[in-house]
């Protein structure tokens, strides 16, 4: 499918982004960190045109996201009830959700692609995420210490990459984190723990 197209970053009100298993190459675009990924917890958010971009919708490399999804054809969609089915893994358990999951969950799944380069430090700005899966790529460099800013993150999977360096001690501040996978990388040093 190529690289993650910059126009995806214009969908500022996404709550979940699943582009897993799409043979995506290139780096993780920093512009993804401008998306709120805020769970839709109030009724006023129900009229958002797009809140979930599903990996099963294949785009040609020269298609633009807005036209491919047919946003213009929907017009005013306020009051429409979207029924969505989602398979999402958090805390090592894969769940099938149906209905209004977007009110309670937010996440990014870019696993099983061919992403390269470092993980942008700016990803730590995604403070509303509940789950982040970057596993099974070719990512290099250190684990960003800025991940400690993601206080709502419950599941972080960075396994099966080429990450190096030590696990930042700042990650011990992530109190909601229930799953932390970093196996099959080139990490060194001891696993940090918070002294009480």
Short description:
This protein has helices at residues 65-69, 71-74, and strands at 2-3, 16-18, 24-26, 52-54, 84-90, 93-99, 107-109, 114-118, 131-133, 138-141, 155-157, 162-165, 179-181, 186-187. It has 196 residues and is mostly beta strands. The strands form three sheets. Strands 1-3-8-10-12-14 form a six-stranded parallel β-sheet, with no helix packed on it.
Number of strand elements: 14
- Distinct helical segment count: 2
Adjacency order of strands in the biggest sheet: 1-3-8-10-12-14
The CATH topology corresponds to Leucine-rich repeat, LRR (right-handed beta-alpha superhelix)
Keywords: Leucine-rich repeat, Repeat
Family: Belongs to the RLP family.
Pfam families: LRR_1
Protein name: 2-alkenal reductase (NAD(P)(+))
Protein architecture, described:
- The chain has 196 residues and is mainly beta.
- It has one domain: Alpha-Beta Horseshoe (Leucine-rich repeat, LRR (right-handed beta-alpha superhelix)), CATH 3.80.10.
- It has helices at 65-69, 71-74; strands at residues 2-3, 16-18, 24-26, 52-54, 84-90, 93-99, 107-109, 114-118, 131-133, 138-141, 155-157, 162-165, 179-181, 186-187.
- Strand 5 and strand 6 (93-99) form a beta hairpin.
- It starts with a strand and ends in a 9-residue tail after the last strand.
- Belongs to the RLP family.
- This is 2-alkenal reductase (NAD(P)(+)).
